[in-house]
Fold this sequence. Notes:
Blueprint: H1 2-23, H2 28-47, H3 52-56, H4 62-80, H5 87-101, E1 121-123, E2 139-141, E3 150-152, E4 155-157, H6 167-180, E5 183-185, H7 193-196, E6 201-206, H8 222-229, E7 234-240, E8 252-253, H9 260-266, E9 274-275, H10 286-299, E10 305-309, H11 314-327, E11 333-337, H12 348-353, H13 358-371, E12 379-383, H14 389-397, E13 402-405, H15 407-412, H16 435-439, H17 443-467, E14 481-486, E15 489-492, H18 493-496, H19 504-507, H20 511-519
Parallel strand pairs: 4-13, 5-6, 6-7, 7-10, 10-11, 11-12, 12-13
Antiparallel strand pairs: 1-14, 2-3, 8-9, 14-15
Amino acid sequence: MIRIGSVTLALLAALVGAGLTVWVSPWWWIAAALLAALGLLGVRDLTQRHHTVLRNYPVIGHARFLMEAVRPELQQYFVERNFDGRPFDRDVRSIVYQRAKGTDAEEPFGTERDVYRTGHEFLVPSMAPCPVPDIPPRVRIGGPDCTRPYDMALLNVSAMSFGSLSSNAVLALNTGAAGGRFAQDTGEGGISDYHLRPGGDLVWEIGTGYFGCRTEDGGFDADKFAEGAAREQVKCVSLKLSQGAKPGIGGVLPGSKVNAEIAAVRGVPEGRTVVSPPYHQVFSTPRELVRFVARMRDLAGGKPAGFKLCVGSRQQFLAVCKAMAEEGTAPDFIIVDGAEGGTGAAPLEFADHVGMPLTEGLLTVHNALVGTGLRDRVKIGVSGKVATGADLVKRLLQGADYANSARAMMFAVGCIQAQRCHTNKCPTGVTTQDPRRARALNVADKSVRVQRFQQATVDSALQIMASMGVTHPDRLRPHMLRRRTTPQSLRSFEEMYEWLAPGQLLTGPPPSWAADWEAADPDHFTV
């Protein structure tokens, strides 16, 4: 192996240098000492368990941590000169790393953000703060048709498949979920042994490829689904309609990643690129979608069943709501994925231009369910750059019941956004099926970081809510979030957006909703 060979070579060169010091010139001791120091540093890097980059790239990997040490100063330099338009991800990554490592600290000298910038948002503190709850609240998932409800944590691991992630990354995420009592969404790649071994709760996601419950010709196999859903760790089952990064197209797993193990989990040929179709075979109308989700719940023995989507047409979602009302059944949960989210690879134009951002998607789904009198039986989960306590509070305030996080969980498990996922050469072992690279990711260490991050983020959300005078998410209201709409004015989310009353669409839709409500057809996905 190159990494071990280079360290061994440095140590051998140090020995040669020591010999030359004796036989040629005493000045050789400088080179010998330097090579010995590098060799010993390499040995230390190879044997330590905390930094995956150093295990995969001994010695030279320290350059990354050197840059991390000076990053705040470099970031400020570039932001001030407009050389970088996306400081957000770096800020969030720093927060995630600190919380995952247990080194989260308060910063002096206040904010560096321009609070008078148009678009700046802030949560409204109360003059009468509340005590922070000792135990984080949980969300009961399960409507009247569900016989085995599940109590969901406020923050969970969003959908990321084994195959896209390495075995050790999946192990670390599920071990962290088990320790912190939150759930892991399997992604559409099926349930592997790495999802099951640690004992963490699972939301089994079924995509258009029906991996794990697939017939030989790529259709849905009800018997295989029932068998998989019967596992004790599977607490909910979810049908993926679309995802934020690339709504309307299927997923792709390069053939270089499809080894024998992944092929067995997914039920596909080994070594061949796996392409999920953009559409489902099990339904073609809103009514058939609602019926199929109900069938999933029955096949799963009464466990909660729902679906995930990146919202596009409000009219189409209203058609689904009409189908729910007419069929007398509804999903137990709906996960709204924002267009700004998504850790999976996607065509650039899809990532930038297709799909509704999370705020508008969430408000569409929440108001549609409220307006059709269904909100009390359907819980809403969200995903899309939810990484901090403030992110979580904002989404709960806008209508969500709980949130899932993918990108931040990847940071917690060691991702450095090298963007080499598709090459199978991830430097931190997170998104690779190369055994050498994946082995460098230490499950015991990274699982603790995942647990720490989730706990610290939920604790932060509860502290923020307490500062707002709120002891439970149910008491959050849209007027508690304000946005600067011009340099001189502020508006609350209650003022900026329309909020429907329970059953309002059934009794008399407001003018802004009337045309979409009238056109919504439970038997057609019209645009």
